[in-house]
Write a structure and sequence with these properties.
The complex is a heterodimer of chains A (110) and B (814). With 110 residues, chain A is mainly beta. Chain A contains 1 helix and 10 strands, in the order ββββββββββα. Chain A has one helix at residues 101-106, and strands spanning 3-8, 16-22, 25-33, 36-41, 55-57, 60-62, 69-71, 87-88, 90-93, 96-100. In chain A, the strands form 3 sheets. A 4-stranded antiparallel beta sheet of chain A has the order 2-3-4-8, with no helix packed on it. The longest helix of chain A is centred in the last third of the chain and has 6 residues, at 101-106. The radius of gyration of chain A is 13 Å and the shape is globular. Chain A starts with a strand and ends with a helix. Chain B is α/β, with parallel strands linked by helices. Chain B has a 5-stranded parallel beta sheet, with no helix packed on it. Chain B has a 5-stranded parallel beta sheet with strand order 9-16-10-11-12. The longest helix of chain B is centred in the C-terminal third of the chain and has 18 residues, at 725-742. Classes of the chains: A mainly beta (110), B alpha/beta (814). The structure holds siroheme, flavin-adenine dinucleotide, iron/sulfur cluster and FE2/S2 (inorganic) cluster.
Chain lengths: 110, 814
């Protein structure tokens, strides 16, 4: 693993998200609680809605275009909808957010 | 020959270590003990009960003079160790050198003092030792003293509660959104705050300290916050964290990182120097609670006796030692794959419990109000035991495991007749059952005849269960739809309870109304956010993260993720300058589509998210503001040209339209609101199908409300005919406010009026002049906060957040 510092946790609003530019496109960084962050694909498998613009609740995000809900732990769509978004290893070191660059290089972000 | 052992620091960790060592082999070492504090070992944890007056200092001393004498320990208390010479194996104290064969560093930690201007004034103290505690106790001896505590963590709150118990007027200033954020989630933090406030402590969260003010004699006078607030105080306690005290070890050349590095045997990089306690770093971890330090003490004693032992860092649990604040937290809440929450709330008792599971294991627990099962949960966390078998009843604790039924209905069935169901109105189960037998077979009827659940409403679920148990198969579950899966209450109930219980924060709503999720979902949270800001415009702060993207970004999202931007054109009027500015912006930001909307203004479609703050800044510069084309709030006020130009015009319809728009813009409402003003009954502005529509006639203004022309088409109903513009403006404002205060989220006015009846609306808005004035005033109060252009604010404060957090395309290319 190779962890890269992508910023201070307070740069992501509580129950909000920010975009992260990577070589294979943008991924979304979600902050679900005071000290809880997730990284996942920004693109909804339904019709490509930008998930970083969705409402963040519990450990899930709701797509802003047609309300599909994704669990940020597994990336699985909830309820009746079927689909999955890629998730990426992201961890906190104190207040800094670190992402695993090797995971980003290994696969293609949608 | 006995070896020489020198110990630096007579604190909790070294004290425990000495006990183990002397128990196992009293003759192994000749011991010298240094302590910078002018005393031996006492139980530092218990300083808080000493502060609050529940204990005396004498009661918390762990090792007294006799103990040290009995064990032949040479005490050098009140003497600091200045240096260590590892080559000569000598320790240099303030009063002379001591040679060692083995050395133990147990220097604890230093409280961190934020380097604010004025942090070195007299009366600014940390909370670490007996001297600090005595300074706080002294404050209580003088009447009318004030203290400020910076830091809403464990230490800060114990300091605050202790001083408050001595009659000091205490304010806690905390930088994060809720108290003890490292141990508690928001819900528990909310309950904790509530208990502290009940003790008379003031709590300011999200408060940034800026400067400590001097009273002119070098003593603290007040704390000034970033927002300019001044908090006068006689004593300022900083409890914002600790840093391992490793200066001595560092100067000695021992390997240090954030703390003094030790291995599993508690040995530093020098084989004859060992260390333990808050000064060390073990496997990347630092320490701030005693439980792991006691494990270290055991291991270190064994290492000194050449026995094999290894330190393993286990999960810790936290309790707050403030009487009446029962909280417990253990384990881990931070990010991770595959975690699940189980939440339980009992609003009536002020209880909140949350368990965090990962796979089949419990990894974290937070509890407030009822912490009796804390130890049981903690043992499951520590042991990593498989809890899948009892998953469904886990949260009810050990009492529910092994057979006992957790079915709520059978629990209700088992209640005796004199069990109280509704606490507010003192209604017991027997009263409800006999009312049901007398024919009250639904909730509404029961409320009417027994008052059960008619006040605060939190027992509604229980009353329904009594109905279900009593009626059996005849019971029809209530048809009223709950807000969503997060909660059993309807929108109407939530609105009513937010008002009657004076709930002023989201955390208060989640807890007091028994939400089943930690912070709602995309369905309920925007509704609750609106209800709170509509009812408590001054106290509640709007939460952008509880809004749909359009309202959060002040632009409409498009199917390709771009946005549309619609500047306001007051009453549909524009000027060549405005049109030029729009044209310039469209060119500068490559706007692909410019459309004239159905609302008499211009829409720029296809703007990239990152360009939003820039295009707004340009439009702002030309004097234009957001048209809120995205808002559940005032959209447009359409007008016709009116009597200035039209040969049939009776009044200044354009002028009135502009006045209405200027009065109502920026306010949030349950759904969007559109107005129109036509200059005569020919109605060119289509006023008779709007939420509020005014038709001008010779004698004045006909005000219609509750029209629709979207998915339903419906003509407005006449609210009133008035003679003056001023009255027309007031009626529109009062109607808007009544709608804001009462309608269900996402009901347009025509749907809401159909529910309450036009007569109900007329009675308040038209006939009752006092109520009309109250509505107008309430609206104006709210508008002092919300009648502002969101673009300007966004450009000023949040521009950066529209750009990506970081760009890794370059790094990865390396
Ligand atoms: C831009 C505009 C169409 C246009 O180009 O003319 C428009 C565009 C949208 N309308 Fe509209 N409506 C527009 C005038 C209207 C009108 C006519 C009017 O305002 O005089 C109506 C009928 C009157 C009414 O409001 O009932 C109208 C009835 C709706 C409805 C149905 C509302 C209802 O209660 O029945 C929706 C859906 C909703 O709000 O839930 C809707 C929703 C939408 C949304 C916001 C859909 C969405 O959620 O993304 C569209 C955004 C398009 C976009 O990508 O930006 N739009 N929409 C008009 C903007 C007016 C303005 O200047 O602000
Ligand atoms: C008010 C308060 C309440 C607390 N409540 C709890 C609680 O409820 N639960 C919990 O688990 N923990 C609690 N803690 C934390 C707990 O007290 C500490 O984790 C523990 O005391 C650390 O032990 P230690 O031996 O490492 O350091 P300390 O107990 O701080 O001992 C270190 C000693 O070394 C001395 N020293 C430092 N440098 C030198 C030097 N150069 N020469 C000589 N002597 C030196 C210091 O004077 C000090 O006496 C609380 C702490 C405080 C202050
Ligand atoms: S009528 Fe309104 S909501 Fe429907 S496509 Fe047109 S703009 Fe979109
Ligand atoms: S694009 Fe995400 S739900 Fe349709």
């Amino acid at each position: 693993m190779s962890w890269i510092d992508i910023g201070h946790i307070d740069e992501v609003p509580l129950r909000g998200a920010r975009l992260l530019k990577t070589p294979m496109g943008c991924i979304a960084v979600f902050r679900t609680a005071e000290a809880e962050v997730f990284a996942a694909s920004n693109s909804c498998p339904h019709k490509g809605g930008p998930l970083s613009e969705g409402i963040v609740h519990g450990q899930s995000v709701t797509c802003p275009l047609h309300n599909w809900v994704f669990d940020l732990n597994t990336g699985e769509a909830q309820g009746a909808d079927e689909g999955r978004i890629e998730t990426y290893p992201l961890r906190l070191d104190g207040s800094r957010m670190l992402i695993d660059a090797s995971a980003l290089a290994g696969q293609n972000a949608a | 020959m006995t070896q020489k052992l020198v110990v630096i620091g007579a604190g909790m960790a070294s004290g425990r270590m000495l006990e183990h060592l002397l128990n196992a082999d009293p003759k192994a070492y000749e011991i010298t003990l240094f302590n910078a504090e002018p005393r031996g070992n006492y139980n530092r944890l218990m300083l808080s009960p000493v502060l609050s007056g529940e204990k005396t200092y004498a009661e918390i001393v762990t090792h007294d003079e006799d103990w040290y004498a009995e064990h032949g320990i040479t005490c050098r208390f009140g003497e600091k160790v200045l240096a260590i010479d590892p080559a000569q194996k000598v320790v240099r104290g303030e009063k002379g050198d001591v040679a060692y064969d083995k050395l133990v560093i147990a220097t604890g930690s230093n409280p961190f003092m934020i380097p604010l201007p004025g942090h070195d004034l007299a009366g600014v103290i940390p909370y670490r030792d007996l001297e600090d505690t005595e300074a706080m106790m002294a404050l209580g001896d003088r009447p009318g003293t004030k203290a400020v505590v910076i830091g809403g963590g464990l230490l800060g709150l114990e300091a605050a509660a202790g001083m408050a118990a001595r009659g000091v007027d205490v304010t806690v200033v905390h930088i994060m959104g809720h108290l003890m954020e490292r141990q508690l989630d928001e819900a528990a933090g909310y309950l904790l705050r509530k208990s502290l406030v009940e003790k008379g402590i003031k709590v300011l969260c999200q408060a940034n300290s800026k400067e400590i003010l001097d009273d002119g004699t070098g003593h603290v006078k007040a704390l000034r916050l970033e927002d300019g607030t001044e908090l006068p105080c006689d004593l300022l306690v900083m409890a914002v964290g600790i840093r391992p005290n490793m200066a001595l070890a560092e100067a000695t050349g021992l390997t240090c990182n954030r703390g003094v590095i030790v291995d599993d045997h508690m040995v530093t990089s020098d084989p004859d120097i060992l260390a333990l306690g808050e000064c060390v770093e073990h496997d990347g971890a630092l320490f701030g609670l005693v439980a792991p330090l006691y494990d270290q003490a055991k291991v270190l004693a064994q290492t000194l006796l050449r026995q094999e032992a290894r330190f393993v860092n286990k999960e810790v649990s936290t309790k707050l030692k403030v009487t009446g604040c029962d909280l417990f937290s253990a384990g881990d809440f931070a990010d991770g794959e595959g975690r699940e929450d189980i939440v339980f709330r009992d609003p009536a008792r002020g209880v909140y419990k949350r368990l965090v599971l990962e796979g089949d294991r419990l990894i974290g627990a937070v509890m407030y109000g009822d912490t009796a099962d804390g130890a049981w949960f903690y043992s499951h966390i520590k042991d990593g035991s498989d809890v899948s078998e009892m998953r469904d009843t886990l949260i009810f604790g050990p009492a529910y495991q092994g057979g006992a039924s957790a079915d709520p209905l059978s629990a209700v069935a088992a209640l005796p007749d004199d069990a109280e169901i509704c606490g507010c109105n003192g209604v017991c189960k027997g009263d409800i059952v006999s009312a049901i037998h007398d024919g009250a077979t639904d909730l509404g009827a029961l409320r009417a005849c027994t008052k059960a659940s008619a006040s605060c409403g939190t027992c509604t679920g229980l009353v329904e269960q009594v109905l279900a148990v009593t009626l059996g198969d005849d019971y029809a579950a209530p048809t009223a739809q709950p807000i969503c899966g997060c909660c059993d209450l309807t929108h109407e109930d939530v609105r009513r309870l937010i008002k009657s219980q004076e709930l002023k924060s989201q955390a208060a709503v989640w807890q007091e109304l028994g939400w089943k999720t930690p912070n709602g979902c995309h369905v309920c949270r925007p509704a609750v956010n609106f209800y709170l800001l509509a009812d408590w415009p001054v106290e509640y702060q709007d939460d952008p993260q509880s809004r749909f993207v359009n309202e959060r970004k002040h632009a409409n999202i498009q199917k390709d993720g771009t946005f549309s931007v619609v500047p306001r054109m007051w009453g549909g009027m524009t000027t060549p300058d405005e049109l030029r500015a729009i044209a310039d912006a469209a060119e500068k930001y490559n706007v692909p589509t410019v459309h004239v909307t159905g609302g008499q203004r211009i829409d720029l479609l296809g703007v990239r998210g990152e360009d939003l703050p820039h295009i707004w800044a340009d439009l702002n510069k030309a004097g234009m503001v957001s048209g809120h084309a995205y808002a559940k709030g005032l959209r447009t006020v359409k007008t016709c040209v009116g009597k200035d130009h039209c040969r049939f015009g009776t009044q200044d319809s354009t002028g009135l339209g502009i006045k209405l728009e200027k009065r109502l813009w920026g306010s949030w409402s349950p759904h969007k609101v559109k107005l129109a003003v036509s200059g005569c009954p020919r109605n060119c502005a289509e006023a008779t199908c709007k939420d509020i529509g005014v038709v001008c006639v010779d004698s004045g203004y006909q005000i219609g409300v509750a029209g629709a022309a979207g998915m339903d088409v419906k003509e407005t109903e006449r609210l009133a005919d008035v003679a003056t513009e001023e009255e027309a403006l007031d009626l529109a404002t009062a109607f808007m406010q009544l709608y804001r205060e009462n309608a269900k989220y996402l009901d347009r006015p025509y749907k809401w009026v159909a529910k309450v009846g036009l007569d109900w609306v007329k009675a308040r808005v038209v006939d009752d002049l006092t109520e009309r004035q109250r509505l107008v005033d309430a609206f104006e109060l709210s508008q002092t906060i919300y009648r502002k252009d969101p673009w300007a604010k966004e450009v000023e404060e949040k521009s950066a957040s529209y750009a990506p957090l970081a760009d890794l395309t370059l790094e990865a290319a390396e």
